[in-house]
């Protein structure tokens, strides 16, 4: 079929500044006339012509509400902008890590490679007609667009006057695998719908020893539960855990992707993953059923993960440290050693201690996966993570929830090589974590999220905290007046990062209060919500004494919690007597 290209007049729309995770707004905002179109065209205009004309682009996402409409709009705009072909995951489904993998690894029948892709997701935010939608662009390395590109996109949204679109291009059937071919003014244009899981599964099998994991999952001593929270991880769970690794179908929870995530909030934490938490024996009431040995959950776009043992929660900060400490022996991909490790600034310093012990390069970066991507592209980092349930490695340029689950299963398989046969007791998730604490010390850690706070009040709170930093002696007077059993503050600052690869400087990345005993308080405004502001408060207490690493977290952190809430005047500024979520 031959299609025509028409130019549509438009005008700038306020508020289209993409954050570190792309552009996220309510669905009703994206449905405004030209809202999505303006952003997509502004993105095309921010790229070099070679990345658009004659190029291959990936367009897919987590399948949330409005994805089907958005994919068709982007296909028509890609055709009009001279893109040669668009690759779409079947039913628009590709996890964020899978998009990264497809961009980096997939070759078309004619040898074509993707130069980038639009990912349609609002990550761990709810979906549905009254909920959130999002879009971001990933570059040819498979990672999120850098600030140099997102800044151009934003500038373009403020001046855009028109966009080309192939309005007469028919709706492409994205429910069936195959190629739809068209002819336009610029030549041929193809849309290829492909299996969402094939490329990603192939990559995972090149990283992990699937046979050793299969042996673990088939052992009567071991039991397993995976919760996709009705997100896109469901498109991979059956294929990987049941077909490839032999787990039982009954081990999968909420693994049918739904555009509204089943009415739930697809954020894998102890608050929102209620069904998994209850099944793992961590709920408020005893179900009377013996929990599985291992449980895990994913968020909406499957880049985040939560790891649980039987009646045991693994903090994301501990998780990345334990993966790094065991990677060389347990995961074939890392058998020749780690190039380095990195964490986001708010993440606990558990990884720092491992890096020092193993003599590894270590980097502390701002929140945002692109900072890890720079290090990985330069060959400086193998494993990285952030406290917000994101863990990953240099196999792609996004965090990867299923990769983290397979990493943990690999460690469990490695630790249980001698125990699966015979009468020896299974080495459990809890055993591994407690041994890690005994070796490296424990970083007691919690995060308080205050969601949808008035943006003006949130800004005032942060300004108050910066002002306090001008006099550390005064801060310590206040600290001792609140809790005399807390160490003195040794320093306080706003975190600033100079990228060792490109020399770029990122300022105002979070407010830190560092204590003499290694404890920390961190305050940060998050850009992952679609409206209002989210204040994140991070509280960390380091304990080296192995005899004291078994305390309850809330007990160990209680003094610092008091300090943080009173020092920041949290209730006074936000009007909240309690956080929305405690992790």
Automatic annotation (TrEMBL):
GO terms for cellular component: cytosol. Its cofactor is Mg(2+). GO terms for biological process: glucose metabolic process. GO terms for molecular function: magnesium ion binding; phosphoglucomutase activity. CDD domains: PGM1. It is an enzyme of class 5 (isomerase). Keywords: Carbohydrate metabolism, Glucose metabolism, Isomerase, Magnesium, Metal-binding, Phosphoprotein. The keyword Metal-binding applies. Residues 16-163, 198-308, 317-418 form the Alpha-D-phosphohexomutase alpha/beta/alpha domain. Its EC number is 5.4.2.2. It catalyses: alpha-D-glucose 1-phosphate = alpha-D-glucose 6-phosphate; O-phospho-L-seryl-[protein] + alpha-D-glucose 1-phosphate = alpha-D-glucose 1,6-bisphosphate + L-seryl-[protein]; alpha-D-glucose 1,6-bisphosphate + L-seryl-[protein] = O-phospho-L-seryl-[protein] + alpha-D-glucose 6-phosphate. InterPro entries: A-D-PHexomutase_a/b/a-I (IPR005844), A-D-PHexomutase_a/b/a-I/II/III (IPR016055), A-D-PHexomutase_a/b/a-II (IPR005845), A-D-PHexomutase_a/b/a-III (IPR005846), A-D-PHexomutase_C_sf (IPR036900), A-D-PHexomutase_CS (IPR016066), Alpha-D-phosphohexomutase_SF (IPR005841), PGM (IPR045244). It comes from the Eukaryota. Monomer. Belongs to the phosphohexose mutase family. This is phosphoglucomutase (alpha-D-glucose-1,6-bisphosphate-dependent). The lineage of its organism: Eukaryota, Viridiplantae, Streptophyta, Embryophyta, Tracheophyta.
